[in-house]
Design brief:
heterotrimer, A alpha+beta, B alpha+beta, C alpha+beta, A: alpha+beta, Aldehyde Oxidoreductase, domain 4, 20 helices, globular, B: alpha+beta, Ubiquitin-like (UB roll), 2 helices
Chain lengths: 744, 81, 158
């Protein structure tokens, strides 16, 4: 659905309106995953493997079942094989079958009348493990004698001799690399490593499941995609999807980590067995050990540049690990690595290896941060060596409309050059720096997606409008959707109420991910509003006894199209609503679509740091985010996405990492030792929103949620390199590592 | 006939070529012809692919038209977070 | 094991409950008293989502035993508003878009209230350090700090 050329001076879109869930959230009334209860409810608890890799020889649950208060115990035997084989991994992550594949892997679960009874029951489950050798690091997983994490999962297109732990082998690019490197004045090759990180949402996974003996189920859970949860859970429990109704609670953060299932199928299985509702909540320890962190990476980058800053060839070899299951994120990494550049010769190769770690889940622009960190750091190092301005070099090589992207398609209108120019013109770029201080910059990119979307608008009797959509609101999208409906209908924002419906009330909606909601749900809302407008105009045409084409919609009213149509007083939406029942029945607008045409979003981040040479501590002095939003529907929320993603990236660059011990167990599964940024770590995060309209959306909207996590990694790496005069090639750049680099 | 560009790791299935020609006028037709002419691609296509048509990425859009002069790029099925 | 009888005041109301020795105040508030506004983010005192005031002092309720509330007063996010009138902090959080998912918001509001009752004229640095015990993953803290500073200014005007 194309950009609407008639637009326009927006009346609602672009303003800063209050959000509909705001009062509930500041008063504590809003209900999140763990806030719901049901009569007769039991408490669930999960028994988890203390071993990183072990064969499960036997599980004896008899003593647990006999404990007073225990109403059900389940293991993998209580689940079907997934109907679709590509879902089997998701199920195996929720409950181990033959092997425990990582420290924290669920092996059994109980439901009991109290939390303490459930905990006591776990102690009574006897699991006979045959401990196996484990592997947690990429390099180790590739060694010839490395333990094989799962049999028969090797990539089918892998060359002869590839290790069985390698599940994906991919390659993207075009042009003649050899010729390109030959033309360069300087070629450098570097290796980079990043650790696994966690999305760090403050709300642990939580759900309340209720299955009745007739096979029908109700599930309340915090999720980014309740329709997908329904699809998976129905598959794993052998239910028809229409028999399982999933309601999405308010969600306390997701960032991609809540786009799949973890405890939900287990809660349903417990409830079915016990014949009572079961509430199951993860502890913070369980979230770290057994939900879905990011991949870790080990990458080689080779880039050739001429003396005056033109990149002649660029090559990447990315090695990712996504836990104990095949993980395709390296494809996204290989595709995004060089996306910001206009290159004649480019190649990005990638492999994924299995390790004894939990199953990877998406984290804002999955695969891109670690790849672009490596590329942007290498470009920056070349700029330093050749004495070139890093912004000028980006501008010189920037992808623009008509550039053949490194991942295949040719770009249409994109905002990279505009964001680079905005950064160049900004006072931040020219501000003076003192000793021990350095400035870094990085570009960032994300594809953004559309996807399956259903929206219904209902005209209420008093002329107000209800919008029913199916995407959990993770950042204020209900307000943006109401704004777009109000804009299209020409009515005030406060006459529209948007709700997120359960799976029984609306058709299928893809997960809230891929920065898709403001784009795709917005687009569907606009179309549904236009559908409703057509129907209202048709009613009015009947009342006026003129042709439908002779009635137009303007400023919330149906009007005659011109003087030839006749002399009629406009009919407002409220007047039409008042007589809807008498003129054919209630009026609604629909749109169901698999939306395409999402526009890519580019961003540039500038950061100034000061590094303390005694402690290795990095202080962020100043941070500015430049990003192309296409059209900022609600500027506060766009700023919020830019700031939030930037701070997650800051944590990733400076502090956050999964630390595994020799025993393959996660050493830091808590917020004390997995240190995310706090308020005192940070200055204000300045934002500059650019608007280069996306041709694929009626208002020009581009997704913005994900791009902002990509640039901070290299921006900080580049800033630290310039502050200390030495370059690190590993994240996080924690104080001990910086001190090591200072020692030389 | 429309030209379809393939990403690098798929070239083994097409004898090393990164651009192939198929006789198709929509998304589904492109996939069908690729599977028929290059059986090595079948597995990948079944697991899920996107097509970028003239710069716009379509994830699963069987009836999306493809013109003879369209730029068509076969890409992995992509997810976000 | 027999349970402990606790008499306390919560948000100004007299409340009685029975609790196990090992139960936290957070558990009792959420599971037994229906006050789910206070959230559990970690259970180990690292995230501040469970912040409440105990006899006016800011504490993590996950680190307070339910029995410790006996004869004391507890204030949670549910006690901030006065009927249908929002506390200035609540209003400013809305005005400044200082929440995205909102899960950390109750903890921040309680913590910010404690700060402003102790220090009505905090600098931005004071605010950032006082709130360092409250984790937020969505906002990057920028709009939260702006909201607290603005609320402080408004409350000074009286």
């Amino acid at each position: 659905m194309a950009l609407d050329d008639r637009k326009r001076a927006f009346k609602v879109v672009g303003t800063r309106v209050p959000r509909p869930d705001g009062i509930d959230k500041v008063t504590g009334r809003a209900l999140y995953g763990a806030d719901m209860s049901a009569p007769g409810m039991l408490h669930g608890a999960i028994l988890r493997s203390p071993h990183a890799h072990a064969r499960i020889r036997a599980i004896d649950t008899s003593r647990a079942e006999a404990l007073p208060g225990v109403k059900a115990v389940v293991t993998s035997a209580d689940f079907c094989r997934a109907k679709h084989s590509f879902n089997q991994d998701a199920l195996d992550h929720c409950m181990a079958r033959e092997k425990a594949l990582y420290d924290g892997h669920a092996v059994a679960a109980v439901a009991a009348t109290s939390k303490s009874a459930a905990r006591a029951a776990l102690e009574l489950i006897a699991v006979e493990y045959e401990v196996l050798p484990h592997v947690t690091e990429i390099e180790d997983a590739l060694k010839p004698d490395a333990p094989v994490v799962q049999e028969d999962r090797r990539a089918r297109n892998a060359p002869e001799g590839t290790h069985p732990n390698v599940t994906h082998v991919v390659s993207f690019g075009h042009g003649d690399l050899e010729a390109g490197f030959a033309r360069a004045d300087r070629v450098i090759e570097r290796s980079f490593r990043t650790a696994a990180t966690h999305q760090g949402y403050i709300e642990p996974h939580a759900c309340l499941a209720s299955v009745t003996p007739d096979g029908r189920g109700e599930l309340w859970c915090c999720t980014q995609g309740h329709y997908y949860v329904r699809e998976l859970c129905a598959d794993f429990l052998g239910m028809d999807t229409s028999q399982l109704r999933v309601t999405a609670s308010e969600i306390g953060g997701g960032f991609g980590g809540k786009t799949t299932v973890t405890i939900e199928p287990v809660a349903l299985a417990l409830s079915r067995k016990a014949g009572r509702p079961v509430k199951l909540v993860m502890s913070r320890d369980e979230v770290f050990r057994a939900s879905g962190p990011t991949v870790s990476s080990w990458s080689d980058i080779k880039i050739g540049m001429t003396r005056d800053g033109r990149i002649t060839a660029a090559q990447a070899m990315l090695r990712y690990q996504g836990g104990a299951f095949p993980c395709g994120t390296v494809e996204l990494g290989a595709m995004s690595a060089f996306a910001a550049y206009d290159l004649e010769a480019v190649r990005a190769d990638g492999i994924n290896v299995m390790t004894n770690r939990p199953r990877q889940a998406a984290y804002r622009a999955p695969g891109a941060p670690m790849a672009i960190y490596a590329v942007e750091s290498t470009v920056d190092e070349l700029c330093q060596e050749l004495g070139l301005d890093p912004l000028e070099v980006r501008l010189k090589n920037a992808a623009r409309k008509g550039t053949k992207s490194a991942y295949g398609p040719t770009f249409d209108d994109i905002g990279l050059v505009a964001t680079l120019e905005a950064a160049k013109a900004h006072p931040h770029y020219a501000a003076p720096l003192c000793p021990n201080q350095g400035r870094g910059l990085s570009c960032g990119f994300w594809f953004n997606f559309g996807g399956n979307t259903c929206v219904t608008l209902n005209l209420d009797a008093d002329g107000t409008v209800g919008v029913t959509e199916g995407n959990p609101d993770i950042g204020g999208s209900r307000a943006s959707i109401s704004m777009m409906a109000a804009e299209e209908l020409g009515i005030p924002y406060d006459k529209v109420r948007t709700i997120v419906a359960d799976t029984a009330s609306l058709g299928f909606n893809d997960v809230t991910d891929g920065s898709r909601v403001t784009f795709a749900v917005g687009l569907a809302t606009i179309e549904a509003a236009r559908d409703m407008i057509r129907k209202m105009c048709a009613r009015v045409a009947k009342i006026w006894d003129i042709d439908e084409e002779a009635v137009i919609w303007e400023d919330g009213c149906a009007r005659p199209a011109g003087p030839n149509a006749g002399d009629f007083e406009p009919m407002s939406i409220a007047e039409i609503a008042a007589i809807a029942n008498k003129t054919g029945g209630p009026i609604a607008g629909h749109h169901e679509v698999n939306a395409d045409g999402a526009g890519v979003s580019f961003g540039v981040h500038l950061v100034d740091v000061e590094v303390d040479p005694e402690t290795g501590h990095t202080k962020i002095l100043r941070y500015t985010v430049f990003q192309d939003a296409g059209k900022a529907v609600h500027p506060d929320y766009v700023e919020g996405q830019m700031q939030g993603g930037a701070v997650q990236g800051i944590g990733w660059a400076l502090n956050e990492e999964y630390i595994y011990g020799e025993d393959g167990r996660l050493q830091n599964p808590g917020f004390l030792d997995y240190r995310i940024p706090v308020a005192s770590d940070l200055p204000k995060i300045d934002t500059v929103i650019l608007e280069i309209p996306n041709p694929g959306h009626p208002y020009g909207v581009r997704g913005v949620g994900e791009t902002s996590i990509v640039p901070p990694l290299a921006a900080l790496s580049n800033a630290v390199a310039r502050a200390i005069g030495a370059r690190l090639h590993e994240l996080p750049m924690s104080p001990p590592r910086i001190l090591q680099a200072l020692k030389g | 006939m429309v030209q379809v560009r393939l990403w690098g790791s798929l070239r083994e299935a097409t004898g090393g070529r990164d651009v192939v020609e198929v006789n198709a006028s929509d998304f589904k037709g492109v996939l069908r012809e690729l599977e028929a002419n290059y059986p090595g691609l079948k597995d990948r296509i079944e697991r899920g692919v996107s097509l970028a048509i003239d710069g716009v990425i379509y994830r699963e859009a069987w009836f999306q038209p493809v013109r003879p002069d369209s730029e068509v790029v076969l890409m992995p099925l992509m997810v976000g977070g | 094991m027999s349970r402990i009888h606790v008499r306390t005041t919560i948000n100004g109301d007299a409340v009685e409950y029975l609790c196990e020795a090992g139960q936290s105040l957070l558990d009792v508030l959420r599971d037994d008293l229906g006050l789910t506004g206070t959230k559990e983010g970690c259970g180990t005192g690292d995230c501040g989502a469970c912040s409440v005031l105990l006899d006016g002092r800011l504490v993590c309720s996950c680190l307070v035993l339910a029995a410790e509330a006996d004869q004391r007063s507890v204030e949670t996010v549910e006690g901030l508003a006065d009927g249908d009138r929002l506390h200035p902090l609540q209003q400013k959080f809305l005005d400044h878009a200082a929440l995205q998912c909102g899960i950390c918001t109750p903890g921040f509001l309680v913590a910010a209230r404690a700060l402003l009752e102790k220090n009505p004229t905090p600098s931005e640095t004071d605010v950032r350090y006082w709130l360092a015990g409250n984790l937020c993953r969505c906002t990057g803290y920028d709009k939260i700090v702006a909201a607290v500073m603005d609320a402080a200014a408004q409350m000074r005007k009286g």
